[in-house]
Each structure stands twice: as C-alpha cells, then as structure tokens.
Design brief:
Elements (H helix, E strand, L loop, with lengths): L4 H13 L33 E7 L15 E3 L7 E3 L18 E4 L7 E10 L5 E2 L4 E2 L1 E9 L11 E8 L4 E9 L8 E3 L2 E3 L3 E5 L11 E9 L8 E9 L5 E6 L3 E2 L4 E10 L5 E8 L3 E3 L5 E3 L1 E6 L4 E3 L9 E8 L3 E10 L12 E4 L2 E6 L1 E5 L3 E5 L5 E9 L4 E2 L4 E13 L2 E11 L1 E11 L3 E2 L3 E3 L5 E5 L4 E10 L4 E8 L6 E2 L6 E8 L2 E9 L5 E5 L8 E7 L2 E8 L4 E8 L8 E6 L3 E17 L3 E4 L4 E4 L4 E7 L4 E6 L3 E4 L2 E4 L6 E8 L2 E6 L3 E4 L2 E4 L7 E6 L3 E5 L8 E4 L2 E4 L6 E9 L8 H23 L4
Parallel strand pairs: 17-29, 30-40, 31-41, 42-48, 48-55, 56-63
Antiparallel strand pairs: 1-2, 1-5, 3-4, 4-15, 5-14, 6-7, 8-12, 8-13, 8-15, 9-10, 9-14, 11-12, 16-18, 18-25, 19-24, 19-27, 20-21, 22-25, 23-24, 26-29, 27-28, 30-32, 32-38, 33-37, 33-39, 34-36, 34-38, 35-37, 39-41, 42-44, 43-45, 45-47, 46-48, 48-50, 49-51, 51-54, 52-55, 53-54, 56-58, 57-59, ...
C-alpha cells in the first residue's frame, strides 16, 4: 500500500529524534558472612550459638585486668538483663540500636547491685575468616557501652571487658577493658549514663598465631560497679571476620617513656558493600593521668597521610587531626601515621600509667560513624626501649607433597635503641628445615652466615634501622599443612616496646597442585586478591591451589573505577567469590568499569532515598524511592536520564556524572493511554508551576498516537513518539490513544504542524536552489 504523507513524515521523525530508554536492575548489598562464628549478628533474635552467664562483681583482683581471671567474678543469680534487642533500652536513645539487621545483643542491661553478665562462644576458624587485604584471619566486632560513673576508684567502677583466646594454641590474643570515666575515651552522657558510639574491635595476630582450624574463645563481659549502686552494660553486634561498614583501628608501641615520641599507625577500610564518599578519619590526642590524677594529653609531633587531605594542629598542641581520604570503594583500605609526644608529666605509677587512645573515628557520606578500638601504652620511668620486627614469606600458599619451599625472613630494628645479641628462633610443623644463609644490611650483622636445621637462638646485632635477612630452605611433608613461626626477642637490658611484631608465621596446604588463572577485563582498573594468598595481578595472574582445596577471590577498585562482576569459575556480582573443591584447573574473569556519580537534590514537601551521591559503573542505574507529602506528587528534573513509575524513579543508563532533582508539587498532570501502545510515565505526575511534562510513546506496529484535545487536556507538541505538554500552571490531563496508521488517518493539530513545517522547509530549500541556478 502506498505510504501517506503523514506516515512518511512519521518515519522521518523517528529517524531524526530516536526513541526509548534503557532500564537496568539495581544491586542490593547483603550483610557479611560470619564464617566460623555462629549467629555473630544475633539475627536469630536470641543467643543461639552463644553461652550466657550470670555473674557477680566481687571486685577486680588484678588491676588493670588482662585476663578474665583478673576480674574476680563469681557466679550470680539468673536474670533477664542479658537479652537481644531490636530497639534501644530506656535512656539509650542516642545509640543506633540495632547496629545492623534487626537485632543487637544487650549484655547486663541496667546491671547494678554488683550484677555482671557474660556471653561466650568457641568458634572454629575457617578459610572464609581470612581477610584478603593482609591474608590474616580477623575476628571483628562492634561494641557500645552504657555505663554509670559512680566516682569510684578505677578498679571499682562499672566496666566492660572483651577477651579473645586461641584455645588450640593456648594463647590469649587480645583483651580490652573500659571503665566508667576512663581518660582517652570519648564519653557522652544521657540520663545519668555515660556511653560511646559503636566501637570497632579488630583482632588479627597473624599466621602461625591464628590459623585455619584453630578454636577461638570469645568472651564479652559487662559489670556494674563493685560498690553496687551503678550499672554497666554493653551492646554487641557484627561478630565475625568482616565488618559491614567503615572500620578504623590503630597500633602503636606497648611501652614508652615520659617526654618521648610514639607513632600510631591507623588502618582504615570500607567493607560496607557500597562506595562511600567524603571518607574522613578524625583523631583526638591520646590522654593519660599525671601524679595528681589529672588528665593530661599527648601533643602533636608529625603526620604522614598519603592520599589524604589533612588538617593538622601546630606542633606541641593537643588539637585534633582530621584527614579526608575522599571516595573509598568497597573492599579497599589504606594506612596513615601520626606521631605524638607522651606528656612529660605522665605518671609512671601503676595502675594509672596508661596512655589511652580511644578517641578516633571514621565516617563518610551515607555511612555510620565508628570509633576505633582503645589502644593503650604503658608509661614507665626509665629503661632502654626498642622495637624489633620480623617478617616471613615463601611466595606460595600451597605446595606439592614433599615439595621444596624457600622462606625469606627479615629482622629489623625500628629503634630507638641499638641491640647486640638478639636471639632469632623458628618452630616448624610438617616441614623439614634444610640449609639457610644470613646476610646483613645497614650495619646489621649475623652471628652465623650459614647453617642448617630450624633456627634456634641465632644471635644478631642490629643498630638502629639495621636488618638481617635469612633465606631458609625446607621440604614439605607428604600431606597435611606446613606451619612455621619465626620470632625475635630483645636481649637482656633492653625492653621490647612492641611485642605484636616480634613473631611472624607462614602456612601452606600440601597436595597435588591445581592452577587458578585470573584475568581482568573492562574499561576500569582494579585488583583481585586471594585467600589463600598467591595472586599478584597485572592484566592476568595465577596461583596454585592444593587439590580439593578452595580459593576465595576479592575484587577491589580504586576511586574512578568499580567492580561490576565475575565470569568463569566465579559468576555474578557477589564479592568475594568462593571457588570450592578445586579438582581441576580453573579460570576467572573479573570486570571493572569506569564510574559515574549520580548526585541528587530534593525540594520541599517530600523525601527521596538514597540521599548520598551514588557511584555506579558507567551504563549502570540508580533507583530512588520517593515519598511525597499528602496531596503532593513527584516532579523530576536534572541531567540524568531516567524513568518515573509511581513513586520509583530509575536513573540510567548512566554514561557520566549527572544530577537529578526531585520536587514535589500539588499541580498534577494525569496521563492515560489506550490499547495498541504504551506511554511513560503514566498516572499522576507532579509538575512545578511554569514547567512542562514530557512523555515517551510506544505505538504497536502499524499504529500511531493520537493526543486528545479540549476539556482538561494540557495541550502540547507531539514530535515523533515524544509528547511535550505546554507550560503547566494548573491540573490537566494527557489522554493518548493509538489508531491504525491508514491512508485515512486524520492528523492531529500537532501532526499538521509537523507536516506544514516539513513543507515549508522543502519550499525554502527549493527556492534556495533556484537562487543558485540549480535545477
């Protein structure tokens, strides 16, 4: 059938203007896996997996306490004060309860009259408890105390205590003790109670000290004061290897002298499952007591914060430090350092000779603020102090039966005192140690340059900044898991001021080796790390895994890129991804995309979530949920493409940074459409006075759109399959029907406008050609 003029013009309009918008599904972030810990987020709504104890505070026997035995607790009467809560208890309103999910544990709620409570669990560590950022098993949790200050001596105050013990290796790995009104802790007050925000605890002693298969005892205790009149309670949540949010922790020396410098190394990370912008770490100077029991602060000395923009105080002041690290993608981390000077007037008399550093936190746009765990340094009157550190690596995580291994072990003196005759030793399991060599650098000297068998008290001399390196050859057993630990100790007359780095270990699975190959793709950049360790990726990388073993892969991207998904042995967007039971070679592709930021703003008479800027991969989407006030309807503007359906607005596909504006108006356009086609949006849409509404029409094949006129119609212009209303200043309607595109189809006024405009354009072209003499 011969085309009508209108159908020809309609096709030409579609060619000129195009039509349609793409929509993609949103990604939801799940809470982190709890690995070896049972019910670590208490989402069963009870204490499944935990043991609850009811106790009595008869007085701390050793202050400050390091072990549970030091607390002097005895059995007490059962009560209902230790429970699981979905909302805060009375007077705990400023706390965000629950922290995550629907429940948080509440230990010893309002536990006065010497009441105390404990929750404990023994968990077996698994490969899923290993953090790929450092390849160590981590046990993390969040705690929030609510404690009454009775004005008692520190040993008699209400308190909370947390201890983590490796039962398998018979070694307590961590303990922390906070008492009411403790210096260096950011206490707030509400209704006669002291509280802090949520504090993050992070325990990771390292390979050889905490390994897969080890049993770990977790003890969490809260107690009212010893005098009986004041209560102490603790909220607990997110016990497990990963913390679903921002995290910051600090490490420093164990011992210091008054007037000397101590350096804190802060580690910050994002495991929220989302990209966080405007990430900040705020640090308040550490505090201690002087001989008169008055609080005195350490003073600022220096700052090193690569990648951060910091506000630093004057040297010698105790003003806070604030560092902004900008955009922090999920599964990314960093470190920075601040050096403080210990107050010259700090007391060196126990038990008050503690330099307390528990007033530092991390925050970001759209993320909760978390305090770092309390770090304490003993202040002593005199002594020769130094910091000896040791590290070990063999470059692999798996080894063939009876396979060869080479360990590189480095011992360094971080100062400030030179040491002579520091012993270096080694323990080994499922491993035969062969020959070894030793070399020194920067003045370091080995007692013996060569030897064989496990190191046993090998003496080294280490001036300040010097090191020695052992290269140790070994052979794995026929099966099982190799394990070796190297350690260094300070010689007589010198005090080791940082015991945490005096030992380092390494483990390997023994078995037939399977190869895992990882390739990176996409327009963005990123890294892929593995548990067990072994990947060091450029465009591609590989590692060996013992037959039947598993590998856990984690993708992370720097600011400006984002991880978008796996293919191959790993599929989907879940991060991390576990490849289980590797009985053959496997390959994985990790894809990274460049990012775009969608920034929203909201007018009066309604809300929109999320509120923070959203960072997505280019081509991705963002879904906003709109909540208008009664009698108002959403109106959307901005530079982002998108689609409004009811009160849900989907931005996308996003090709670059863009903005979206949500206004809420009581002026409405009501859109309806008939059969044989569709339109978007439909229903009631708010329009800010003086603006227009735009609709995308999609006729079925062989049909064209007709826009009703007269009555309450808004009026407007149809261009191709896009209808734009006239300026709207009162409620109006857009009524669309779809009619068969036949020769007898009668154009609408707007369609006649297109026809006339096309004819005029053709006439003008013809006249122009005549003027030029073209026929």
């Amino acid at each position: 059938m011969k085309k009508t003029i209108w159908r020809a013009l309609a096709e030409r309009s579609r060619h000129w203007l195009g039509a349609g918008l793409m929509t993609l599904a949103a990604t939801l972030t799940a809470m982190p896996a709890q690995a070896g810990v049972t019910n670590g987020n208490f989402e069963t709504g009870d204490f499944t997996g935990w043991n609850v104890e009811y106790l009595r505070n008869n007085g701390i026997t050793t202050f400050p306490p390091v072990t549970r035995a030091d607390l002097g607790l005895v059995a007490g009467a059962a009560n209902t004060n230790t429970t699981v809560r979905g909302t805060p208890a009375f007077n705990d309103g400023p706390l965000a309860i629950p922290l995550q999910g629907s429940w948080s544990a509440n230990v010893n709620n309002r536990g006065n009259n010497q009441r105390a409570s404990a929750i404990t669990q023994t968990a077996t560590m698994t490969l899923a408890d290993v953090d790929p950022t450092d390849n160590k098993i981590h046990l993390r949790m969040a705690v929030a105390p609510v404690i009454q200050d009775g004005g008692h001596a520190p040993s008699a105050q209400a308190y909370f205590f947390v201890a983590i013990t490796n039962v398998t290796k018979n070694r307590q790995m961590f303990s922390t003790f906070n008492f009411a009104n403790q210096p260096g802790v950011p206490w707030n007050t509400v209704g006669g109670y002291q509280y802090t925000g949520w504090q993050a605890i992070d325990v990771a002693p390292g390979n050889g000290f905490l390994d897969v298969g080890d049993q770990v005892l977790i003890e969490v205790i809260a107690a009212g004061c010893n005098a009986g009149g004041h209560s102490g309670e603790l909220y607990v949540d997110s016990v497990g290897p990963f913390f679903a949010g921002l995290l910051v922790s600090a490490k420093t020396v164990d011992t210091a002298l008054p007037g000397t410098d101590v350096t804190y190394t802060y580690t910050y990370s994002n495991n929220s499952g989302l990209t966080v912008t405007d990430t900040k770490v705020d640090v308040v100077a550490p505090a201690t007591l002087n001989a008169s029991n008055a609080v005195v602060n350490a003073t600022f000395k220096s700052l090193s914060a690569p990648g951060g923009t910091c506000t630093a105080p004057a040297v010698g002041s105790s003003d806070p430090v604030s560092c902004n690290f900008g955009t922090l993608n999920d599964h990314t981390s960093g470190t920075f350092q601040i050096t403080y000077t210990v107050p010259a007037t700090a007391t060196t008399t126990s038990p008050n000779n503690k330099l307390n550093h528990g007033n530092y936190n991390i925050s970001g746009t759209g993320a909760s603020t978390f305090l770092g765990p309390l770090v304490q340094t003993n202040v002593i009157a005199s002594g020769s102090l130094t910091d000896l550190a040791i590290s070990v690596s063999d470059g692999v995580s798996s080894v063939a039966p009876n396979g060869a291994l080479t360990y590189v072990v480095t011992v360094t003196n971080l100062g400030p005192t030179a040491v002579t005759g520091a012993p270096v030793s080694q323990t080994a399991s499922s491993l035969t140690v062969g020959s070894w060599t030793c070399t020194g650098s920067n003045g370091g000297a080995c007692g013996n340059a060569t030897g064989s068998g496990a190191l046993s008290g090998e003496l080294v001399n280490l001036p300040l900044g010097a090191s020695v390196t052992y290269t140790v050859n070994a052979t794995a057993a026929a099966s099982g898991t190799t394990s070796t630990v190297f350690s260094v100790a300070a010689p007589a007359g010198v005090t080791e001021n940082s015991s945490a780095n005096n030992a380092a270990g390494d483990t390997n699975s023994i078995g037939v080796l399977r190869q895992l190959t990882v390739t990176k793709a996409g327009t963005g950049t990123g890294t892929v790390s593995s548990v067990p360790a072994g990947l060091n990726c450029g465009a591609s990388c590989g590692m060996s895994v013992a037959n039947g073993g598993q590998a856990i892969l984690t993708a992370s991207a720097p600011a400006g890129s984002i991880f978008t998904g796996w293919t191959g042995a790993c599929t989907g967007t879940g991060n991390p991804c576990t490849i289980s039971n590797m009985t053959s070679d496997q390959s994985v592709v990790a894809t990274f995309a460049l990012t775009a930021t969608v920034t929203s703003s909201v007018g009066a008479n309604g809300t929109a979530t999320p509120t923070a800027p959203q960072v997505v991969g280019q081509g991705g989407t963002v879904v906003y949920s709109l909540t208008p006030a009664a009698g108002y309807y959403p109106a959307v503007s901005g530079t982002c493409p998108g689609n409004l359906v009811g009160n849900i607005y989907t931005v996308g596909p996003v090709t670059g940074d863009c903005t979206v504006r949500f206004d809420f108006s009581d002026i409405t356009v009501t859109a309806t459409s008939g059969a044989n086609g569709s339109m978007s949006p439909t229903g009631v849409t708010g329009v800010v006075a003086g603006n227009r509404a735009v609709y995308t029409l999609a006729p079925a094949a062989g049909f064209i759109a007709r826009i009703a006129t007269g009555g309450t119609a808004c009026g407007g212009t149809l261009s191709g399959n896009t209808f734009t209303t006239n300026t709207v200043n009162a409620n109006c309607t857009v009524d669309v029907t779809f009619v068969a595109a036949t020769a007898n189809s009668i154009p609408t006024l707007s369609e006649w406008g297109l026809i006339l405009m096309s004819a005029l354009l053709g006439l003008m072209a013809f006249m122009h050609r005549r003027q030029l003499g073209v026929r």
